[in-house]
Amino acid sequence: MKLSTKGRYGLRAVLDLAMHSSKENAVALSAIAERQKISISYLEQLIAKLKKAGIVNSIRGAQGGYILAKAPEEISVGEVLRALEGNLNPVDCSELEGNNQCSGSDLCVTKYVWKRISDSINSAVDDLMLSELVEEGERLRKTNGNQ
After folding, report:
1. Is the pTM of this model over 0.70?
2. Is 77:134 a contact under the CB 8 Å cutoff?
3. Residue 21: CA atoms inside 13 Å, Cβ hemisphere, count?
4. What Cα–Cα distance (Å) separates residue 77 from each residue in 25, 32, 125?
5. Residue 50: other Cβ atoms inside 10 A
């Protein structure tokens, strides 16, 4: 499975918010765009999806911008990626979608491969919380002298 720029850039944007925002301090899109080297117009599209999914909130006004809707400990990487990419299945397979509309399903052996891959991907991203990425980012900055 290969994630699109939506998933990759969107996760970077959410991580940036986790590292730079607080309930009192919203982050402007222009600041995220500059730090993450993402165009503002593309970032607006990503943030709209993240807002609709309840991952980020917007704050209006002179000190406005965006903040996380929940604590980083409550947001999984899987939640962010699904908000941006849709399901994370490695292939289009009706068995993975749960609709059982494939005429060859009864004789298909490869569906077990796709199911195991899908389960592994979903487990990995659902078990990884945004707070863990924040901690890793802080550790890397300290290690590289960029405190």
Report:
1. yes
2. no
3. 27
4. 23, 18, 5
5. 24
Residue type, 30: S
**C-alpha triplet 92, 8, 121: angle, nearest 5°:** 45
Can you tell me which residue has the tokens 């195991």? 116
Question: How many angstroms separate the CA atoms of 114 and 95, rounded?
Answer: 9
d(CA 72, CA 110): 37
Task: At 127, give phi and psi (nearest 5°).
Answer: -85, -10
DSSP sequence for 74-109? G-BHHHHHHHHHS---SS--HHHHT----TTGGG-S
pLDDT tens for 66-80 read 999 999 999 999 999
pLDDT tens-place string over residues 87-108? 998 888 766 666 666 777 677 7
Question: How far is 12 from 15, CA to CA, in rounded Å?
Answer: 5
